[in-house]
Amino acid sequence: MSADSTSFNHPSFGRMTPDRVIIFDTTLRDGEQSPGFSMNLAEKLRMAEALATLGVDVIEAGFPVASKGDFESVNEIARHTKGVVVCALARSGGAKDIVAAGEALAPAERRRIHNFISTSPLHMKYKLRMEPETVLELITSGNTAARNLTDDVEWSAEDGSRTDPDFLCRCVEAAIKAGATTINIPDTVGYATPEDMEKIFAMVRARVPGADQVILSAHNHNDLGLGVANTLASLRGGARQVECTINGIGERAGNAALEEIVMALRTRHDQYPYTTNIQTTDLLKVSRMLATITSFDVQPNKAIVGRNAFAHESGIHQDGVLKNAATYEIMTPESVGWSRSSLVMGKHSGRAAFRDKLKALGYADMDDARLNEAFSRFKDLADRKKVVYDDDIVALVDDEARDHDHIRFAALDLTSSSGKPSSAALTIQVDGQDVQANATGNGPVDAAFNALRQAFPHEARLALFSVGAVTEGTDAQARTTVRLEENGKLVDGQGADADTVVSAVRAYVHALNKLLVKRARTAPEALTA
C-alpha cells in the first residue's frame, strides 16, 4: 500500500487505510534467539503483557515446534495476553510445524500463523537443497495448511532481499493464492540498502496480482547498521507492517529497534505520514524491563532509551537547551517515558519516596514482593554509602526484578588473607529449600564459585567474568557479569552488590537460572528435500 492506495479489509485489523502501520514485535522470538539471551515462562508473560500495554499490534511469541518449552510459552501467552494478535512461527515445509503452531495458539483471542521458507539461490542450494519448483510447492501447501487453522496467515521469504526478483514475485503470488494475508520480505542477513528495500516492495506491489489486498511487511536485520533505515525505506516502497524488537535485540547485530522506528515516524511525520498504536511514553519502561530480564544493558548512547539520549555535556549545548530545549532536542524526554526527578535518595528516604523514584526511573510495574526486597536492599546500601545515585538504584532493582525461579542467593561468609587459600560458606535456595556448601579457592571469588558448584552441581564452563563499578568512589556498588557455556549454549547473568564477591555470586546464580531455561530448548530438524 502506498499513500494513494485504496483501503481493504484484513481478518485481524479490519479496514486497513494507507496511513496505518502495523507494529509486529518479535522480541520474544527472533530477539530471544540471540546468543546469551533467554527468558523463562514468567518473564515471557511479563514481557508479553508489557508489549500489549505498549500498543504493539502483533506479538510473535515463539516457535512452538522447537521445544516443549517454546510450545508452552506460546500457549500461555495466547491464553493470557489480550488485545493483540498472538503469532507463532512455523516452516512452510514442516507439516508438524503448522499443526504445533495451531495448537499452541488455540486459546488466543486473535491468532496468526507465520510460516516461512528460504527463497534465495544461496539458501535453496546449500541450506534447503531444493529446486525452486519444490519451494513453490511448499509455499502453497504450507499457507494452505495454515489458512485451514486461522484466517490470519503470514508468509515470509527468508533471505528475500537476496532472492531473484522474478522468482520472488512468483513466490509471493503463490502465497497470496494459498491464503496468506500478510507477506513479509525480510533482509535476513542485513545485506540490503535502503534503496534496495524500497525497490523490492515497490516491485512486488506493481507486479504481483493481489498484492494490494494484503499487508506487505518488512523485517530488517542490522548487520550493517541499516535496520531502521531499511525499515523506513520499506514503508516508502509500500510496506505497512514493520517487524522489530525492543532495544533492537536479535541474532548477530540484532533487528530494527521498535523504539527508533516509532519515534522516527512520530518525529518526522512530514516525511513518513503514518500512524501506529504505540504509547510512546511507555517505551523507556518496556526497554528497562527487557534489559532487566535479559541482563543485557542498553548502551548509554542508544537512541531514545539510552541514559545519554537526552544528556548534554557541551557548554554550548547546555546553554542552548536552557534557553529553548528544541535547540538540541528533537523530541522531549517525557515523550518516551523519561521524567525530570528532583528526589534525592538517602538513608532517611521512605518507601513512598522510593516507589516514586522507581516510577521516575521507568520501573512502574514492580510487584509488592520485589518492591519490598529492593527497598530493603536500598536501605542497607544507604547505610553504607553517603550518596545513593540513580544508577545505584537501577542496579539493585534490576537484580531484584529478575525471575530466579529455581535458584536464589541467600547468604555468603568469606575468609580471605594474603598468601593463603580463601574459604567460602555459601547458602542458596533451590526450589525453596536451603542448600549449604563450603569450599576453598584461589581468592574469594574462586572459593565462592567453587561453593556454588558444590551446592548446585553442573558442568557449565565459565566463559566470561567481568566486574565494573556502578558509580564512582570506593564505596560504589559492583556490577558483575558472568557468562556460562554448556554444549554450545551461552547465557549471561548479572548481579549487583556493594560487596564485589556477593555481586559475582548473584550474577552466577542468575546465569544458572537462564541456563536451565536453555537446556529445555532444542532446534528443530533441518528442512531439506
UniProtKB/TrEMBL annotation:
<comment type="pathway">
    <text>Amino-acid biosynthesis; L-leucine biosynthesis; L-leucine from 3-methyl-2-oxobutanoate: step 1/4.</text>
</comment>
<comment type="similarity">
    <text>Belongs to the alpha-IPM synthase/homocitrate synthase family. LeuA type 1 subfamily.</text>
</comment>
<keyword id="KW-0100">Branched-chain amino acid biosynthesis</keyword>
<keyword id="KW-0012">Acyltransferase</keyword>
<dbReference type="GO" id="GO:0009098">
    <property type="term" value="P:L-leucine biosynthetic process"/>
</dbReference>
<dbReference type="InterPro" id="IPR002034">
    <property type="entry name" value="AIPM/Hcit_synth_CS"/>
</dbReference>
<feature type="domain" description="Pyruvate carboxyltransferase">
    <location>
        <begin position="21"/>
        <end position="284"/>
    </location>
</feature>
<dbReference type="GO" id="GO:0003985">
    <property type="term" value="F:acetyl-CoA C-acetyltransferase activity"/>
</dbReference>
<dbReference type="InterPro" id="IPR036230">
    <property type="entry name" value="LeuA_allosteric_dom_sf"/>
</dbReference>
<keyword id="KW-0028">Amino-acid biosynthesis</keyword>
<keyword id="KW-0808">Transferase</keyword>
<keyword id="KW-0432">Leucine biosynthesis</keyword>
<comment type="subunit">
    <text>Homodimer.</text>
</comment>
<dbReference type="GO" id="GO:0005829">
    <property type="term" value="C:cytosol"/>
</dbReference>
<protein>
    <recommendedName>
        <fullName>2-isopropylmalate synthase</fullName>
        <ecNumber>2.3.3.13</ecNumber>
    </recommendedName>
</protein>
<dbReference type="GO" id="GO:0030145">
    <property type="term" value="F:manganese ion binding"/>
</dbReference>
<dbReference type="InterPro" id="IPR005671">
    <property type="entry name" value="LeuA_bact_synth"/>
</dbReference>
<dbReference type="GO" id="GO:0003852">
    <property type="term" value="F:2-isopropylmalate synthase activity"/>
</dbReference>
<feature type="binding site">
    <location>
        <position position="30"/>
    </location>
    <ligand>
        <name>Mn(2+)</name>
    </ligand>
</feature>
<dbReference type="Pfam" id="PF08502">
    <property type="entry name" value="LeuA_dimer"/>
</dbReference>
<dbReference type="Pfam" id="PF22617">
    <property type="entry name" value="HCS_D2"/>
</dbReference>
<dbReference type="Pfam" id="PF00682">
    <property type="entry name" value="HMGL-like"/>
</dbReference>
<feature type="binding site">
    <location>
        <position position="221"/>
    </location>
    <ligand>
        <name>Mn(2+)</name>
    </ligand>
</feature>
<dbReference type="InterPro" id="IPR013709">
    <property type="entry name" value="2-isopropylmalate_synth_dimer"/>
</dbReference>
<keyword id="KW-0464">Manganese</keyword>
<feature type="binding site">
    <location>
        <position position="255"/>
    </location>
    <ligand>
        <name>Mn(2+)</name>
    </ligand>
</feature>
<feature type="binding site">
    <location>
        <position position="219"/>
    </location>
    <ligand>
        <name>Mn(2+)</name>
    </ligand>
</feature>
<dbReference type="InterPro" id="IPR050073">
    <property type="entry name" value="2-IPM_HCS-like"/>
</dbReference>
<feature type="region of interest" description="Regulatory domain">
    <location>
        <begin position="408"/>
        <end position="529"/>
    </location>
</feature>
<dbReference type="InterPro" id="IPR054691">
    <property type="entry name" value="LeuA/HCS_post-cat"/>
</dbReference>
<comment type="function">
    <text>Catalyzes the condensation of the acetyl group of acetyl-CoA with 3-methyl-2-oxobutanoate (2-ketoisovalerate) to form 3-carboxy-3-hydroxy-4-methylpentanoate (2-isopropylmalate).</text>
</comment>
<dbReference type="InterPro" id="IPR000891">
    <property type="entry name" value="PYR_CT"/>
</dbReference>
<dbReference type="InterPro" id="IPR013785">
    <property type="entry name" value="Aldolase_TIM"/>
</dbReference>
<keyword id="KW-0963">Cytoplasm</keyword>
<keyword id="KW-0479">Metal-binding</keyword>
